[in-house]
Amino acid sequence: MSKIRMDPVTLAILKGRLEQIADEMDATLFRSAFNPIIAEAHDASHGIYDAVTGDTLVQGKSGLPIFVGVMAFAVKAVINKVAREGGLQDGDVFIFNDPYEGGTHLSDFRLVKPIFRNGEVFCYLASVGHWHDVGGNVPGNYNPEATESFQEGMLIPPVKLFSAGILNNDIVDILSSNSRLPNSLYGDLNGQINALDLGHQRFKDLLDHYGEENIKTSLYLLKTRAEKMMRDHLSALPDGTVSVEDFLDNDGVNDTALKLAVDMTIRDQTLIFDFSRSSPACAGPVNISRSTTIAATYVALKHIFTDVPANAGVLQPVEFIIPEDSFLSVKAPKPVGGYTETILRLIDVLFQAFENIAPKRVNGCAYGTINALSIAGHRKNGSRWVMFSFFGGGHGGHPEGDGLNHGNAPISTATIPPLEILEAAYPVAFTQWALRPDSGGLGKHRGGLGAIYEIELLEENATAFLFGERGKFAPAGVVGGGAGAMNRFYYDSDEEDAKNKKKSPVLVSKMTGIKLVKGQRVRLETPGGGGYGDPQKRLQKFIDNDIDQGYVSGKRT
């Protein structure tokens, strides 16, 4: 295989055509999804995967980066099922959301479809999308008090949604019956099916035009080139070991900080991540599976080495040591619904690990939480509504300039749903949606600002739920930069212990069952990003502009 060649023009064309297939699948789902989490925020992804190993070959550029690594495990779960049970046919489509078998959390549903050529599987196409509600104790499924996965939603193992092209309506009925929002679920499911159908047709056309051998060659070369590129990057860095740790506020059940630690070793063009010093599996839902840990590590590497492509070759020089009792490698039924908070901290830890060996490649830590906020209730006509959304914050300062104000999390290329969309869909009004002054970490390049969201209930009553982080441990700066401001959440309350009729969660960043009546508000102040470089080296013109724009008041609040 080492002697395989292809002229660079043809390879570039095929690379573009393959990526276009994944991009078109992304666009198809975004246009047809019913829920704003997919349609507006683009919390979904599509890709092409190896027929034998399940390795990522190509992924769409509009989907979530966190799915790059984890979807390979999802496809492998289907491959393993077929190896055990047989019965794979052209036209089959598998559906599942098992977070321990190539998943993330129960809200992310995967569809996997084999592409046959000459009677054999040539590759797999896969689609994943974040469904609005999949049951469980909390609308929107971010339950910070969950102690087992059964409290987070329905768990579906890999099963055939289509058999030889025939839809199994019983599966659809089961899924719909376990959601508070069955119409949304049905619409998102159909969007994913249509995306796979389009991808199948586009891939068939590509095979017809270029032939199987040319496509196989291009996929092999793209993967091997990615591996070489990653090894070249590692060879330019000094050998040695760096140790870093950061913390999660708590697990939502026990108010005890959780340590996420890494000992990172570079040796002989190989990168070793040892997470052995991290906390053991916890009672609450900030655990993650081994596959999710590996996927998050890939996202961090993609931020640091920005030119490496989105395929499995990048991880070939990378080794992982993740103890089985760690909260980074849990098995069922340990809860994993808040996986986003943990993978964001993992990315922060890796940014800090590379700080001293590759300072021109790292950013200050981003705001470090998606702040999953759900407000749910019933309208006057009795129909149920569930507003689930995530909210932005500041990104870290970087070697080239200040961090992004009010961006989305670094696990994502998604957007933050606009307030106009949320107000049109749900009985709420945003009384404030603004940048949060003084929230960015100081530095030669300032951390980006977090945001202030204040939401008023327009219906008679509702219940709110918050799943966040960074309420106790601020996003760190790098290369001498300062930390960003921490997360803050308040809600109106008439209870006797409320101070000025406002309360905050006992666990700072997590809470369920917040009772609201018409006119009451919740207020979320998100973290800013960490700064980059010595604040004393910041140019005066940038300081003056910060003050003029209201980014900085002169004192940190």
Verbal overview:
The chain is of the alpha+beta class. Helix content is 29%, strand content 23%. The protein is built from 10 helices and 20 strands. It has helices at residues 8-32, 36-39, 66-85, 169-177, 182-210, 212-235, 290-304, 339-354, 419-425, 540-549; strands at residues 44-50, 56-59, 93-96, 108-117, 120-130, 159-163, 166-167, 240-248, 258-267, 270-274, 318-321, 372-378, 384-389, 428-435, 451-457, 461-467, 488-492, 502-503, 510-517, 521-525. The strands form 4 sheets. It has a 7-stranded antiparallel sheet. Strands 14-15-20-17-18 form a 5-stranded antiparallel sheet, covered by helices on one side. Helix 3 (66-85) packs antiparallel against helix 7, helix 5 (182-210) crosses helix 6 and helix 7 packs across helix 8 (339-354). 54% of the residues are buried.
Which stretches are poorly predicted, pLDDT < 50 over at least 5 residues? Answer: none
Structural class: alpha+beta
| Strand order in space, largest sheet | 2-1-5-4-3-6-7
Number of domains: 2
- Strand percent estimate: 15-25%
Overall mean pLDDT:
94
User: Can you tell me the overall shape?
Assistant: globular
Radius of gyration: 23 Å
Main β-sheet: number of strands, strand sense, barrel status? 7 strands, antiparallel
How many β-strand runs?
20
Give the fraction of residues assigned to helices: 25-40%
